[in-house]
Design goal:
With about 230 residues, the chain is mainly alpha-helical. The protein has ten helices and two strands; from the N terminus they run αααααααααββα. The chain has helices at about 5-25, 35-40, 45-50, 65-75, 85-100, 105-115, 115-140, 145-170, 180-195, 215-230; strands spanning about 195-200, 205-210.
Length: about 230
């Protein structure tokens, strides 16, 4: 019997979100009340607040669950996998979750363009992924020369790539190969930012370089020289 509880919670949550989207589109955000959303979803006001702390939260996905998934990718990654690859793989799961939402994600995007209150909430939620990714990268390379700075730059780049690909997919009404574009964007980030200095056990610096296949030799030499000078 307990196995049905998560499914019921998911159905109620989805019903509340769908009802809120319909009402916001028809009446406007400020003009819609929590009681109206709950009634349209077939539940009571108290049930609404068991799922969402406010009217602003009702159309947004369960970011906590998605952050848990990101954390699981970090926790289960092999120590041999480059940290930037792990970060890209973790953020990829967030993009997949948005795509799985389909029309709901597209409708949410349109609402956040129309109502500044929802836009502000979206920006705040998205920033939590930046914090999580940057913290992971910093934990992996923070003791390397310039490690903390690299983690900030690389973490921001990974999340920015995700946001760009997702936004373009939403603008297109949920059409297009978002996952393929994300893979290309993440590959570009790995090739561009995949050079960090690592400290060997003997105290000497070792440079690990990740370079694009087919890069001219002169560019390869320059990239290695730049890394050695850090």
């Amino acid at each position: 019997m307990t196995s049905g509880v998560p499914d019921r919670r998911r159905r109620v949550r989805e019903a509340l979100t769908a009802a809120a989207i319909d009402l916001f589109q028809a009446k406007g955000f400020d003009e819609t009340t929590v009681d109206e959303i709950a009634a349209a979803a077939g539940v009571g006001r108290r049930t609404f607040f068991r799922y969402f702390p406010s009217k602003e939260d009702v159309i947004f996905p369960d970011h906590e669950a998605r952050l848990v998934r990101v954390a699981e990718v970090f926790a289960t990654a092999s120590a041999d996998e480059p940290p930037l690859s792990v970060a890209c793989r973790a953020v990829h799961t967030v993009l997949e979750a948005y795509i799985d939402e389909g029309v709901i994600a597209v409708q949410r995007y349109r609402l956040t363009r129309d109502f500044p209150q929802l836009r502000a909430r979206e920006i705040a939620s998205a920033h939590t992924y930046n914090i999580a990714v940057t913290r992971y990268l910093r934990d992996r390379v923070g003791d390397e020369p310039e490690g903390a700075l690299w983690a900030e730059v690389a973490g921001s780049a990974v999340v920015a790539a995700h946001n760009h690909v997702l936004r373009q997919w939403l603008k297109a009404g949920g059409k297009g190969d978002a996952l393929g574009k994300a893979d290309r964007a993440f590959r570009y980030i790995r090739e561009t930012l995949g050079v960090t200095a690592a400290r060997a056990d003997d105290g000497e610096d070792v440079v690990v370089a990740v370079l694009r296949r087919g890069m001219p030799l002169a560019n390869v030499v320059r990239r290695i020289e730049d890394a050695l000078e850090r």
